[in-house]
Amino acid sequence: MNKSLYGEIPAELEALFKAHQDKKATQTSPASTNDVIKILRQKGKEWRADHIKTQHHKDGTQSEITRRVPARTIANYIKDVVITAVIGDTQKETDQAPLTLYNNDTGLYTNSERLLNKMILAVDNTTNKRFRAEIQSWLNIEAPSRKREKDINLIPVGNGVYNKITNKLLPYSPSMVFTSKVATNYNNEEISEPSFNGWKFSEWIKELSDGNKEKEKLLWQLIACVIQNRFSSNVLFCLMDGGQGRTGKSTFEQLLMNLVGNDNYTSLKLEEFDKGFLLAQAFGASLIIGDDNNPKGYIDDGSTLKSIVTNELVLVNPKMQTPFSARFNATIVQSMNGFPRFKDTSGGLYRRFRLIKFNHQYPDTPAGRKIKDEYIYNQQLLEWILKKAINIPVDTIIQTKESQTALDDIQLENDIVLSFVNSELPELKSTRLPVKFLFNLFRKYSDDNNTPTKMSRATFTRRIKPLMAQRGWEYKKSRANNSFNKDDAELLKGTNYYDYNNVYKERNTSQQSFIKI
Q: pTM of the predicted model, to two decimals?
């Protein structure tokens, strides 16, 4: 047994340290977090015992000064007992990635600054913030780069990693790089769906689906996406009701949170995705859930939201920390009683949404409260749901008729140019439409719909070009035989926009126009 200033090192700690080193050498699972803290605390004690400085005083007395453990030494100690990594699929990603530590308690690589600081303070509890930042910088620079686990058939769950191909449960290992998981355990045994006083989850899903098989499938696919969150389905789920309450929407949200566990979800509303310091709290979550989105809100950008949905790199900017780029393996679920407006009105954004309406209103009864407060927390139920959903295909997420109809209405409401094209273009008789005429007709349309526009003609032209192209109209200067029909000009009569003789007349064909192909 070794000795130090503090006496003999306990045999169990000495054995623990040796076992930990043996495990680390073979890249298997290191010690638990508590064991790591104990080991680092002991190493700090040993270092101080070996580096005590004796100070001699003028009166002939002497005293011992305990020195602070150097930052470089602390960094080395942590590297000795903890597996570190910077995670990224490319050199650019790893250059900008944060330091992560393998946490044996969870089986995940985490960038928890709090956990790192606990380890530093275990070695020397006198270190200040600047000192700790120096240690973190060294560890970040020296950490090996690792790539995320690419096998999407491996699903990290509460008690291991489920292999969809072999139907086997594997133990967590540092060799499998995961940053998020679902906390519910996978049960290898045959389990049946539990019933609670006659209430069954599967029957409740059918009820929420209004008996519609497509909608029922979509709800189960949503659950499957939450569990299989590493498979990017490239969609965002929106749970909607009319704001009347007691629709089952919040109960369904809570069930999803129960499935993933408290440490694996975070709350973020649609408008908050473009705020880098708020986005930082979502890094490493398997579920990002947003409640009470403002139906009258306006999403000015939306590009970060779209990038997260499609599993692209985004910039994360934590407060008081260095910004970094990251990919999110998370399912996004947003709750609302009305749809906010987006500056981006492109189909590329809207086709990512899957809208699920909660059309029932349940009475406030003791039996109903038991569902929300008790049944959805039952571990047997959660394990049954996980086992059912873990093999549901999520490569293509169904778009129900209900969802598509609602999206069409929302897009028309949010995009007045699209609404104008859909409403007015089919009524026009011309095969040549001057841009100035279309813009003036658009201004009249906006006035008639009580939404006077401040849009410039250049912006209008840019917005309408792809919409016209989709409908068989080519944008160009033309003296071709295509003609502008005077009946169309009459639509502007009685307004300040009517100018047939000088602008729209047949002889004036050199202006920019849309030509019917």
A: 0.80
